[in-house]
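Students often ask why we bother encoding 3D structure as a string. The short answer is that it lets us treat folding as translation between two languages. Here is a chain of 248 residues written in the first language.
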Amino acid sequence: MEHFWLRAYLIICFGDIPAVSMIMRMKGHNGLSPCQMCKITALRPPGSNAPVTYVPLDWSKHPSVHSDPNAIAIYDPRSLPLRTHKEFLAQANLVQFALTSAESEQLAKTYGIKGIPILSTLSLLSFPILFLFDFMHLIFENVMKNLILLWTGDFKGLDEGTGNYVLEKQVWEAIGEATTVSGSTIPSAFGPRLPNIADEKSSMTADMCSSLLKTTFKLSRKDFQNGWRTTRDSTTNTNRIDCQSAHS
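And here it is in the second language, the structure alphabet:
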């Protein structure tokens, strides 16, 4: 038997938000500098001492902007102030080697970085651009479930505002019935059989959300404009759902 050396190189890191924050030694999404990619900072709701923060692009009406002439009023999502590898590690060093614990904590709060990450010793890894959030947690365990809550008028007490997208109860129930029936025409190779999503929103797994997005839940913008929200005929709404078969 011939033996040989096998060299493995770590060229990218990914995971959910807490995991990526941990390996990068960052404060994470609850910090005042929460993003691993850019230097946008978070805000607390005016008059609130709650630890929950938000990261709006438009700060123009927030009291903190009115009291600080140097504050950025509006962030351009196409041109955010990005972190660089050199700056990230320089800030990590300042936090790690601060003269006092109080100074270290204040710098960590400002930069969103808690110290020097051990993976920075690997020259192939560039911070932060090679540390990404995985698609499963970002989309299937987060965005998809929040969209369902939004479409059914159950997302954090928010209403439609100036939009027109909340589905009436009987329409959503018709969609739920159609997702259940669709399992008879979609092979298991495409994903798990879907439950009635109108009744079992909380039990939807990432695998189910993936299948829902890819093969079953194909609502077009035209469908919404043509009366999804107000149509009373659940039969019509069921027929509008594209429950694809494997060959469609």
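Translate back mentally: Residues 227-248 have pLDDT under 50 and may be disordered. Keep this in mind for the problem set.
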